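Key idea: predict the complex, not the pieces.
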Amino acid sequence: MNAGGTSPTRTPSGAASSNGRAFLSVSALTKYFPIRKGLFGRKIGDVKAVRDVSFELERGRTLSLMGESGCGKTTCGLTILRLTEPTTGTVRIGDYDVTSLRREQMKAFRQDAQMIFQDPQEPLDPRMNVRSAILEPMRIHDRLREGTKRLAEIADRVGFPKKYLRRYPRELSGGLQQRVCLSRALILQPSFLVLDEPTSALDVSVQERVLNLLLELQAGLELTYLFISHDAAVVRYLSNWVAVMYLGQVVEIGRTDQVFSRPTHPYTQALSNAVLTPQSRIRTCKVVLHGSPPSPVYLPEGCAFAPRCAQKRDACGREPPEMTEVENGHFVRCHRCPAEVTPT
Amino acid sequence: MSERRRRKDNLHGTPGEHLLEVTGLSTEFVVYEGVVRAVDDVSFYVRSGEVVGMVGETGCGKSVTVNSVMRLILPPGRIVSGEVRLGGRDLMQLSEAEMRSVRGREISMIFQKPMSSLNPVFTLESQLTDVIRLHRSISGEEARRIAIDSLKAVALGSPEELLARYPFELSGGQQQRAMIAMALSCGSRLLIADEPTTALDVSVQLQILKLIRQIMDDTNMSTLIISHDMGVIGCICDRIYVMYASQIVEHGPTEAIIEHPGHPYVIGLIGSIPAFVKSEARLEHIPGEVPNPLDPPSGCRFHPRCKHAIAACRTTRPDLRDVGPEHAAACLRTDEIPRTDESERKLPC
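Result:
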């Protein structure tokens, strides 16, 4: 396992559970999308969406993948659920060895691991009412009778008014639509949820309620969340562990308080600097991060962040940095670490 | 002060004077189920050189308000009443032809998704020079020079090369910069930015907001920024208007609104921002749902969700009352309700 540096003994976000086995374990996960050209589909390159991502997470906890658009966080979530096939690497969720599941084993796995998407309207069939939409996954998995019984309980849990069960998605607000999507996932009684920006399409006052609902559901049902977001404030509010991604790699990972109170990778520092609060003043804000990330097809040599890094040195342009542990459970992929850490 | 700066000052009016003044603006949409009054008796102003923010949740009427100012409301919508004065001239009284010369020339507008405002089959050069030559009778050569100048003003490197590109060859940040360049190229006095950074990443958002503020400070242009994000509005604006259910419920200088909001809705709105509360604290809660625009509640529109509501709130529509210098809130009980406690909040970084 590469993530802990050259020694394979430690994994970021170690999260040793009581039985010594993490609930979710991702190791050296890589996803390349080939770029083909011409009549014979000659491969001319790869979009390197996810590169060598490793982490572990114990049951009932939340790990957030944070980063800007195009950093590979969504692809990482999709690959973990095998909604897209990984190029290399292994994923284990609970008792499932996800990456080696055969086709007929997938159906059982799908009931245990579900995904919630950013736009709550997209996954809902506009011609299917809420009741059928929530029962659809149960019908697919031949558990319809059980589903009908549990429908009311699920609606209660996610705070969906039962009088709206006969309505159609377009008649509901974004917050209610997201609750329908949550019901569809939860009625299967999964133990693991990938939440891909579940609140970024919602207004702040609605977002706050969905976030609190997610926390309640997690506490009540012992759910494990992989939360994907670009919003540092939301990540900080919801998660126990944070992994910051840049160009397909995890550049910093640690407990939420570690990453946010002592951001160590220059990219993490720049990101937390860019969070605007109503009290920030744009005249005094310093733009630390210029330009936009390079193409994931032609990666820079050495550290992927070096071309935009204000603290770069000679080595950064030559060699890709390894993960280094800067404090217990807090790993950073930067040549400055651990020798010259400047905590902010 | 440079020659250029002085010229701009004359063109854009004396700082402090009301450049845009909107009074009693109402806009309705006739739909099958009835009439939706999306903007209800809204009044506001923007001074010369000022950056003013309008903040509110989805559907509160903020975009319809600025589209009404630009007279971009199409049937079944119509502007029912109100005055929109730009430098003393009432835009509502202009003919459509006159209005077209105002759009782009005197007021420019940029939108949330720059990609959907730019035409994918034309190069930046043809799109930028088109706008410039539409409003000024100049040669193509000259228009190209102005286009290059305005691309330089938005800090886009190698503008000559960029002009030959198509919009899809630019990143989201570059596209939005190009839109701002287009807005600047005609020397308009007022920029209306409708959610200018919502589609962009946080690091790019900071660059764009910084750029807008810097251009405004340099040129004495005025800006009206629409956003649902209190963080964006708070950091860049001099004054803020908060809209709820088609009405303005509070307005005032940025510090006053953020530190001492007077309306219970605004207090709740600020309390529900994750960046704003302690990491251990639960986010505050505004109970209930946004009211149905077809049948808004009587009296104060916020009363069904307000924990401070009394009987009078159900019957009386509160007027905007002064609660501080230039700071007014539309709440009957604004003097009695406790303002947010300072110690409960802290900065995240």
